[in-house]
Design brief:
Distance between the termini: 36 Å
CATH topology of the largest domain: TIM Barrel
Number of helices: 14
CATH architecture of the largest domain: Alpha-Beta Barrel
Order of helices and strands: EEEEHEHEHEHHEHEHEHEHEHHHHH
Shape: globular
CATH class of the largest domain: Alpha Beta
Oligomer: single chain
Number of strands: 12
Structural class: alpha/beta
Number of domains: 2
Strand order of the largest sheet: 4-5-6-7-8-9-10-11
Helix content: 40-55%
Strand content: 5-15%
């Protein structure tokens, strides 16, 4: 089906380099999916790539060896059938353990290793991992050097995701970015908030712009990119090479094709047909059940369905009903019937506002976004 557009009076399109590379990997475009624990599993990554994202980073894998044989870790290291390049994020505080974790994941299919220095969750930061590492610049650099050294022997690029700093008074992203580039990191993603902020307030982009000006490697801007217009604004404000979208893709994985179309043409892509969303969601659910099995798949799918239907007529009653279902078949039937009813009322899926996206996901992501 051809693209349907809504024309509007806008400044000329804002083109950014679609030939972005991470090491020796060339990406189809510069739209990236942020790693989100409990969200960016293999079915979700594959769906986002089908709908316009060029690159998606997996959920975090711990560097603690005794957890590598756990079911959770085995799922996170399962990349069967996933289009490349396959990027895996690792987290920890010990340089040697982090290097071992990198090689463990390379042996299981990772083509790019990403280091987590951006997670604000207390359960991660209380162990001095994630964004807590930004408080100890020497340790942070030691981890990067160890991981890069391990990956160089396998010709595997290393990237890193971080925040602007630990708190407003200690925004050290620029200092660290220079050190990480010197140590061999080949791409940086920067979330425009400090660890202290979590997901409160709004992201700021001046620090990301300063990081971009300070290094020669690609920089991805992350934080509050909820619409095509916001994507263009962030690119102009930061000069970034790429955009990394997280919460706004929850229940709206087609945001990547919307952003790509807007940046290339200056016109809006019409919202998807309800029938398209129905097909994507049902395919996502079937992949999700196959990946997790019925017991976990049924329960973990509820959040995805909730994100898709938020704000739709009757969604609150539907979600309450959904939570009482005890089989995947019943869940599939309920979703299909709900979207069939919506299709009888409207042809196209209503657009979510940026405010509703952030309001409905901020609380959840305080504990899961990396």
């Amino acid at each position: 089906m051809g693209a349907v557009t809504r024309h509007c009076f806008l400044p000329p399109p804002f083109f950014f380099d679609i030939r972005m590379r991470i090491g020796h990997y060339a990406l189809a475009n510069s739209l990236l999916v942020a790693p989100m624990a409990g969200v960016t599993d293999r079915p979700f990554r594959q769906l986002c790539k089908r709908l316009g994202a060029a690159y998606a980073v997996s959920e975090m894998v711990t560097s603690r060896r005794y957890l590598w044989d756990s079911l959770k870790t085995s799922r996170r290291t399962d990349h069967a059938g996933e289009p490349g390049p396959i990027a895996v994020q690792i987290a920890g505080i010990d340089p040697r353990m982090m290097a071992d974790a990198a090689l463990y994941n390379v042996d299981r299919g990772a083509q790019i290793i990403d280091i987590n220095m951006g997670c604000p969750a207390k359960k991660v930061c209380n162990k001095w991992a994630g964004s807590a590492l930004m408080q100890d610049e020497a340790l942070a650099l030691s981890i990067v050097e160890a991981v890069v050294a391990a990956c160089q022997s396998r010709n595997v690029p290393v990237t890193l995701k971080m925040r602007t700093g630990w708190c407003q008074q200690h925004r050290n992203a620029v200092v660290l970015a220079r050190a990480f580039e010197s140590a061999g990191v080949q791409m940086l993603a920067v979330h425009g908030r400090t660890r202290e902020q979590g997901y409160r307030g709004v992201a700021e982009y001046d620090t990301i712009a300063a990081v971009k000006a300070a290094v020669h490697i690609p920089v991805a801007a992350n934080g509050d990119i909820t619409s095509p217009e916001k994507a263009r604004l962030v690119l102009r404000r930061t000069g970034a090479d790429a955009l990394m979208v997280g919460r706004a893709a929850q229940g709206r994985p087609w945001i990547f094709r919307e952003i790509a179309h807007f940046l290339a043409t200056g016109t809006y892509l019409a919202p998807p047909l309800v029938s398209e969303v129905r097909r994507w969601l049902l395919e996502h659910l079937h992949d999700h059940y196959r990946f997790y099995g019925e017991f976990i798949g049924l329960r973990s799918a509820r959040k995805h369905i909730g994100w898709y239907v938020r704000g739709l007529p009757g969604s609150e009653v539907f979600r309450a009903y959904l939570n009482g279902l005890e089989s995947c078949d019943a869940q599939i039937d309920a979703v299909a019937q709900f979207l069939d009813g919506l299709n009888n009322r409207m042809d196209r899926f209503p657009a979510h506002s940026a405010e509703s996206v952030l309001a409905n996901t901020g609380r959840d992501m305080a504990e899961v976004t990396l």
